[in-house]
Write a structure and sequence with these properties.
The protein is an alpha+beta fold. 37% of the residues lie in helices and 25% in strands.
């Protein structure tokens, strides 16, 4: 699936800023910046990966700046960025 650079989210407390960009290398590369990465970094990356794969994106460069977002917020921000990056409306029938 072809993607362009897109982003979603904010740098406010309790949110996450997601930027998705094309990646020439195979697979997803996630660069996570989080004050809770030591405790929750693996879970944050897992949610990002599962959300993107569920949307059919398996090759992208992802930069995530987390400010303590819950899993539901991470999924929402990743989905919004993916829709912007692909032009594919996941909410349409």
């Amino acid at each position: 699936m072809e993607i362009k650079t897109a982003m979603a989210g904010t740098l406010e407390s309790g949110d996450i800023f997601i930027q998705i960009a094309p990646n020439d290398n195979a697979g997803l590369h996630i660069d996570l910046d989080s004050t809770v990465a030591y405790q929750f970094g693996d879970q944050i990356k897992k949610v990002i990966t599962e959300t993107l794969q569920g949307l059919g994106i398996d090759q992208a460069e992802v930069k995530a700046t987390d400010k303590g977002a819950l899993d539901c917020t991470i999924r929402a921000r990743v989905t919004a960025a993916a829709v912007r990056a692909t032009g594919k409306d996941v909410w349409a029938d």
